[in-house]
């Protein structure tokens, strides 16, 4: 029996499909309305913070836990929720696993948990590209987005479990692309291009196909149980955000963005959005963290994962073609077009 959290999310939903294809029995936790019935999947409604419930769900026949649930947000009003869901929720999962010796845990973290890159040496160009791998260390003295902090602290909970005897593997995906909910997480980038917005910001952004995330995740957790506990970056490569949005718009047959927002303008906009959100209670369209995302030219290396699993990563063009075609086919998932 496999236990999965976050089975209704982008990664979790594709993970469930692959587990079903392998004929494995799955028990999946969900919070909202009960998802459609699926062969081999036992849906259980509940809260990730309910320690008693989790303990009851990790029965003696559960051999693996895939912890995919988590909150992705850069909105200031979500800071408490990020700590509750990502940190306390992971601690609860780890404790439940420790109570069942022999369980192997797979945790979906993020490249955000690696921390921000250090400034380049004075002799190096400011926009010089830096490569980050799993050896990157968290700078306790630096300022980090609340989301990044929550994923870093969640990883510490997994490492606490490992210190107490838990078998575990951590994957750190970059921005995950796939045909998911238009209004959630990384799929909103595809929606942004579909809606024909004119503006984009400068920056280098790293991407990975959701199918590759699932393939590496399953190999590391299910098929390579003898591997010692470690983290693995999952990322195909880094691309200019403007180029990415133009590729997506072309795949949708939409008008691409044409106007790059200068750095000073982005700084003004996020401050205005912050004030607007305070006055109206509405969620900001852009935050300080999203406005500044991608300014440092960083490439996250997935070489450790490919060496361990023997698997590669699909090129971005293939991922865009697949995801946009799937979203065009599923007309009910498409948002209204902004003129």
Could you characterize what this model shows?
- By secondary structure, this protein is an alpha/beta fold.
- It has a single domain (about 1-335), classed as Rossmann fold (3-Layer(aba) Sandwich), CATH 3.40.50.720.
- It is built from 11 helices and 14 strands.
- It has helices at about 10-20, 50-55, 80-100, 145-165, 185-195, 210-225, 240-250, 265-280, 290, 305-310, 315-330; strands spanning about 1-5, 25-30, 40-45, 65, 105-110, 130, 165-175, 175, 200, 205-210, 230-235, 235-240, 260, 300.
- The strands form 4 sheets. It has a 7-stranded parallel β-sheet with strand order 3-2-1-4-5-7-11, with helices on both faces. Strands 8-10-12 form a 3-stranded mixed β-sheet.
- β1 (about 1-5), α1 (about 10-20) and β2 (about 25-30) form a beta-alpha-beta unit.
- α3 (about 80-100) runs parallel beside α4.
- The radius of gyration is 20 Å and the shape is globular.
- The N and C termini lie far apart (about 50 Å).
- Mean pLDDT is about 85; it is low at about 120-125 and about 330-339.
Give structural attributes.
single chain; 339 residues; alpha/beta; Rossmann fold; seven-stranded parallel sheet; three-stranded mixed sheet; 11 helices; 14 strands; globular; disordered C terminus
């Amino acid at each position: 029996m496999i236990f999965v959290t976050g089975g209704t999310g982008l990664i979790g939903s594709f993970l469930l499909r692959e587990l079903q294809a392998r004929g494995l029995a799955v028990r999946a936790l969900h919070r909202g309305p009960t998802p459609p019935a699926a062969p081999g999947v036992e849906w259980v409604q509940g809260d990730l913070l309910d320690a008693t419930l989790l303990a009851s769900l990790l029965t003696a026949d559960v051999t693996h836990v895939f912890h995919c649930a988590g909150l992705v947000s850069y909105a200031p009003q979500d800071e408490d929720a990020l700590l509750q869901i990502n940190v306390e929720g992971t601690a609860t999962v780890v404790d439940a696993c420790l109570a069942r010796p022999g369980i192997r845990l797979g945790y979906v973290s993020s490249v955000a948990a690696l921390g921000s890159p250090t400034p380049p040496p004075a002799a190096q160009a400011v926009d010089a590209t830096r490569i980050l791998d799993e050896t990157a260390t968290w700078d306790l003295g630096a300022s980090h987005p609340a989301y990044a902090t929550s994923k870093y602290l969640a990883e510490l909970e997994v490492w606490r479990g490992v210190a107490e005897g838990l078998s575990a593997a951590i994957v750190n995906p970059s921005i995950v692309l796939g045909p998911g909910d238009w209004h959630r997480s990384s799929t909103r980038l595809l929606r942004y291009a579909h809606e024909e917005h004119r503006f984009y910001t400068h920056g280098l952004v790293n991407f990975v196909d959701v199918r590759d995330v699932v393939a590496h995740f399953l190999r590391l957790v299910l098929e390579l149980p003898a591997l010692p506990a470690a983290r693995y970056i999952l990322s195909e490569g880094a691309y200019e955000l403007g180029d990415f949005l133009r590729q997506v718009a072309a795949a949708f047959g939409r008008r691409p963005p044409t106007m790059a927002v200068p750095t000073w303008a982005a700084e003004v906009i996020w401050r205005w959005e912050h004030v607007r959100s305070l006055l109206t209670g509405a969620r900001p369209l852009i935050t300080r963290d999203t406005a500044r995302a991608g300014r440092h030219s960083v490439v996250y290396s997935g070489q450790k994962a490919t060496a361990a699993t023997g698997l590669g990563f699909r090129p971005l063009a293939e991922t865009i073609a697949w995801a946009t075609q799937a979203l065009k086919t599923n007309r009910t998932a498409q948002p209204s077009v902004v003129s």
